[in-house]
Amino acid sequence: MKKVIFFLGAFLIMSGSAFAQDDLVAKVASQAKDVDKKGYTFTTQIDLSVLPVKNQASSGTCWSYATTSFIESEMARLGVNPIDLSEMFTARMVYHDKANRYVRLHGHLNFAQGGALPDVLYIIKKYGAVPYLKYRGLEYGEDMNRHSELEKVLKGMLDAIIQNPNKRLSTAWKPAFNAVLDAYFGPFPETFTHEGKTYTPRSFADEVVKIKPDDYVQISSYTHAPYFSEMYIEVPDNWAWGTCYNLPLDELMETVDNALDKGYTLSWATDVSEKGFSARNGLAIVPAKPYHKMSEEERKAMFESPVEELEITPELRQAAYDNYETTDDHGMHIVGRVVDQNGTKYYVVKNSWGEISNPYKDGYIYCSEAFLRYKTISFVVHKDVLSKKTIKKLGI
């Protein structure tokens, strides 16, 4: 199938302070200028890009953008005309369900802008889906996402409900919370028209989007849990307690390549705090020499041409996770694969920080095989890409 690539707008990461995210936006934007030289020469092996790079702006909703883009590509793979879907409809409904769990747990749950990759599938299965043009989620006087105020208002309201001195919850808190969601995002779209036909979110997901959420699996690789077992992704933003299948690292990488070779893309959760991750340079790499041991000249040259990269073992990967060196920062969409002039594989990753200029593909990151091995938190993919041996070992 021939794929057409488009591009749009700007940015943000999965969790953490929205103010810190705004600072990072400003920093990246100030550096986002054309780089004259191309120190790497890439040859494309696979390109499965479908719809434009989008702009999450000042909102911690990369998880929604990543998996929504993934679902749009799945529609194309299934022979369905891909529709630009609403990330904010998903965000609204996640806030709705997350609030219920937060209150039920007396506030002992992370209530923030972040989420997990499978949250989009969870919302499609439970509530449905809506086209972006029918639900932009911008009812608060802005033309781009800005969720800092929203997050503080929602969390402050829930904390007040939990601390209620009346010793019992009123019947008003859920309608009141939904009224705030309505004010910021817009009311739940009970019905809407698309191409001359009236849909509900449920019927639109079933009749137009047509994906089956139960056909998708989340994969990771950690040594603290048994391989070929189901485990929780132990990160703060996994509010829904989503699980994944734990594979040996080599088998995880085989699954990534097998997916791309068969025409499937992947929704990917990763750590972007590393010095080897640079949106301006369009690269994510893991130099063998630690950044703190590099000279100033070596630091300036690290993106100019291919460098020796660190050999990533399961033990090294686990240690980085356990020591908080690998953190759940960002969600993106793996859509292809290239090789450099030395034959090293890189994965083409669609970002949601907009058209940040770089020497290779604006708005995208070329992620080395070493970086993917080292910094993958998890990925979501269709279960059909799993090899027969993996399926047998997982018992699914």
Note the topology.
Layout: H1 18-31, E1 43-47, H2 62-77, H3 87-104, H4 119-126, H5 148-162, H6 173-185, E2 192-194, E3 197-199, H7 201-209, E4 216-220, E5 229-232, E6 243-246, H8 249-261, E7 266-270, E8 277-278, E9 283-284, H9 296-301, H10 314-322, E10 330-339, E11 345-350, E12 364-368, H11 369-375, E13 376-382, H12 388-394
Parallel strand pairs: 4-6, 9-12
Antiparallel strand pairs: 1-10, 2-3, 4-13, 5-6, 7-10, 7-13, 8-9, 10-11, 11-12
Helix pairs in contact: 3-4, 3-6, 5-6
Walk me through what this model shows.
The chain has 396 residues and is an alpha+beta fold. The chain has 12 helices and 13 strands. The chain has one domain: Cathepsin B, Chain A (Alpha-Beta Complex), CATH 3.90.70. A hairpin with a 4-residue loop joins strand 8 and strand 9.
The major pleated sheet works out as: 11 strands, mixed
Radius of gyration, taken over Cα atoms and rounded to an integer in Å? 21 Å
Q: Helix and strand string, N-terminal first? A: HEHHHHHEEHEEEHEEEHHEEEHEH
* SS strand fraction: 15-25%
Please name the defining characteristics of this protein.
12 helices, 396 residues, 11-stranded mixed sheet, disordered N terminus, alpha+beta, Cathepsin B, Chain A, two-stranded antiparallel sheet
Summary of the model, kept short:
With 396 residues, this protein is an alpha+beta fold.
